[in-house]
Amino acid sequence: MTNVGNSHRLSSIIGIEDNLILFDGVCRLCNAWSRFIIRHDKKRIFRLASVQSAQGQQILEHFGMPTDHFDTMLYVERYTPYEKSEAFLRVTAKLGFPWTGTRVLWLVPRAIRDWFYDRIALNRYRLFGRYDRCLLPAPDHDQRFLNDAE
């Protein structure tokens, strides 16, 4: 994954201060993760978008990631992409106590963390199921998600 250095195109979708989490909108586990974020992000620092949305597709394309299959969560902070266990740990660190306790996992080498992440990600549909289509955000969560009309 590379940052192609063209932040102008990305800035038309998200702002430099946005902390954006892209997730697989048909994955039940990923949808549960997005609901977890909304529930525990008391400071409202995260925005969410499904990888299937128009913006999600543009962001994936911007960072040279596949747009037809999804095997990782992508977290974008200050136009820098993070994926797999690093994305997870960066997000949980910003949620505050008690979720900052996941910091201890930084002591585990990244290759090992990512191996475990991949086992779950590659089997998530079989383990947790999937929806036929992306779920729409609840009306009271609308401002938490990137919107095609923005």
Folded structure, characterized:
With 150 residues, the chain is α+β, with helices and mostly antiparallel strands. It has a single domain (7-142), classed as Glutaredoxin, CATH 3.40.30. 37% of the residues lie in helices and 12% in strands. The chain contains six helices and four strands. It has helices spanning 7-11, 28-40, 54-62, 84-94, 110-122, 124-128; strands at residues 19-23, 46-50, 74-77, 80-83. A four-stranded mixed sheet has the order 2-1-3-4, sandwiched between helices.
CATH topology: Glutaredoxin
Question: What integer value in Å does the Rg equal?
Answer: 15 Å
Q: Total helix count?
A: 6
Q: What is the number of independent domains? A: 1
Chain-wise SSE layout:
Layout: H1 7-11, E1 19-23, H2 28-40, E2 46-50, H3 54-62, E3 74-77, E4 80-83, H4 84-94, H5 110-122, H6 124-128
Features:
single chain; 150 residues; alpha+beta; Glutaredoxin; 12% strand
Give a quick summary of the entry.
By secondary structure, the protein is α+β, with helices and mostly antiparallel strands. It has a single domain, classed as Glutaredoxin (3-Layer(aba) Sandwich).
